[in-house]
Sequence to fold (348 residues):
Amino acid sequence: MHRLKTLLTVLLVIFGTLGLAAAPRFGERPFIDIYQVPDSAMEQGHIRIKLSEANSALAQSFQYQDGALASFGLEELDALNLQYGVKKISPVFGDVNKNLKWGWRHVEWGLHLWFELEYDSEADIREIVMAYRNLAKDVQWAEPEYKKTLFSVNQGEVSTIADNLVRWTPNDPRYGEQWHYHNTGQTGGTADADIDLPEAWDIEKGHSDVVVCIQDQGVQYDHPDLAANMWINPGEIAGNGIDDDNNGYVDDVYGYNFYQSTSNIVGGDHGCHVAGTVAAVTNNGVGVSGIAGGSGTGNGVRLMSTQVFDPTSGGDGFEQAPIYAADNGACISQNSWGYTSVGNYEQS
Fold:
């Protein structure tokens, strides 16, 4: 009897270990039980899948028509696409073969294996996701896309920024209003409840070798209090309609508008606000001060605009923006937005 119990214990350990080994691993990100996620947190009509590593070569050979794939060429996967009325297949992180500069690195990272499936089905999205997860031979992961939203900022400041997005004619600096930098109780708050920015400025005021991507609404690149600290792509010639540096993006001089898939960046109040917090030109007698805005000569950190939100509503391109930023030299990503349902987010 004792030997039987021992054998059963060993078998349980073995099967338990195999189960853990077979489960997808995503670093420190916890597993999300989609059956506990509310419908309101998920974008309806499309999901994401990641092909198995065995399909890496196949994924690199795909030919896209207008950014979409006709089929995977995998019998079981294509049959499931037909069952759920998949009408568009597109690479989540773009076509690696078009990115002559960094495509090889995206393949090493496995980004070429991620696809978004746009479908037309009345089935519950959880049922659809689980059906794709069950295709273990061809698919290593499937998930919904979760909704995202901008984090709000002080509406008084937003209104001021919005009024001056295109025409900026300040009469005097507004540093004294930025109590969160240096709080003397000037707005009725608690003195010294701040980030001690003047003390930090004694050490560093900002360095132009550091590139920060603003993943938000677009940043108005010709804004008088931002222009001197904007990142400029050294390998791109503005307005010639050519991808001069072969990074897969045409005319991406100040960054890219991933929401609309265009180099035309549309400035927004929230985007300009957070960019100004990072690196509005400090000590130039105009507008506000930036945390790392330099000393007034345009020597602050560089602001790269990776637009993922529309100035009024909606958002897209959240996956591509940080990859683009990292590829093109950004070492910090500013994100003042989040998911509409706490704790629910994509693994992609």
User: Anything to note?
Assistant: The CA atoms of residues 70 and 89 lie 7 Å apart. Residues 1-23, 166-172 have pLDDT under 50 and may be disordered.
